[in-house]
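User: what does the whole thing look like in 3D?
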Amino acid sequence: DAMVIQNPRYQVTQFGKPVTLSCSQTLNHNVMYWYQQKSSQAPKLLFHYYDKDFNNEADTPDNFQSRRPNTSFCFLDIRSPGLGDAAMYLCATSRDLGQGEGEQYFGPGTRLTVT
Amino acid sequence: GDSVTQMEGPVTLSEEAFLTINCTYTATGYPSLFWYVQYPGEGLQLLLKATKADDKGSNKGFEATYRKETTSFHLEKGSVQVSDSAVYFCALRDNTNAGKSTFGDGTTLTVKP
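Assistant: Here's the predicted 3D structure for the full assembly of 228 residues, as structure tokens:
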């Protein structure tokens, strides 16, 4: 039944050690998003893929990268995690970008701890 | 730019009380509006949506009406339950800017028996 799956649910990494978070979807949606959510705050969009087209938000640090090898999978790579990168990372999908297509389906999130 | 302003929390209510969480927005164009709910340790779930003015979204006893004249999308429920305790996010999706979504800061609701 799960439509947007994120692995792992909890990830611990060391300061400066690269880490990859994974997202997969069974909805065959065109758009996949990565959000960062810090405690008691709104989700902050990092970037999204429309099919293979990558769209980075202007204020997303270079430390964050993403890959989408196929329709179903999308990865978030943090090249050198800092303590400030500890957060919940949410993956979401939507069928398309236009009017009426905007409903986003979220995964359960991966909580990243940086030690 | 686009923005969403939500009523500040936390909100604490007794079971069966009436709930209102205010949400106002600023946007260019004609956004779609959403309410998402987040239970502890989980991702966001869509609660309801409205895509044009005067539309009413409803789900699980929750309702919100898209009011263009007041740029508002207030969430209401007539009788809350303990299981409604969660964080509620109001969001808009700008249909003219590559579908970018903007979220409010969230309102934490606690319902006591």
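In plain terms: The radius of gyration of chain B is 14 Å. Chain B has no helices and twelve strands.
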